[in-house]
Amino acid sequence: MLMLWYPKCSTCQKAKKWLDERGLVCETRDIKLENPTAEELQTWYQASGLPLKRFFNTSGLQYKALGLKDKLPGMDGEEQLRLLATDGMLVKRPILVGDGFVLTGFKPKEWEETLG
Description:
globular, alpha+beta, 6 helices, four-stranded mixed beta sheet, 41% helix, single chain
């Protein structure tokens, strides 16, 4: 498994602790230092079955500063993926990628259902 996270994020820390407590090993990648590529995001988006908006950190400062709430509806999926790939802080975190699943954000119940 691969977890993209921002180590200073309290939600990401909770997710990592949750995994550790269950003995689930994953590779971690700092989303700010090594943001996902458009190709990775495309692959994960398709595998997740989620709406593309779920990959955006809608509560983040960068999202708000760029006015994306109003801009995203006018952008196609490819434009949105390219935008996400420009700055890891735009991406919802953590993202957990494993065989047959992609989870965005940390929702313990969802993680338990998927990994339990």
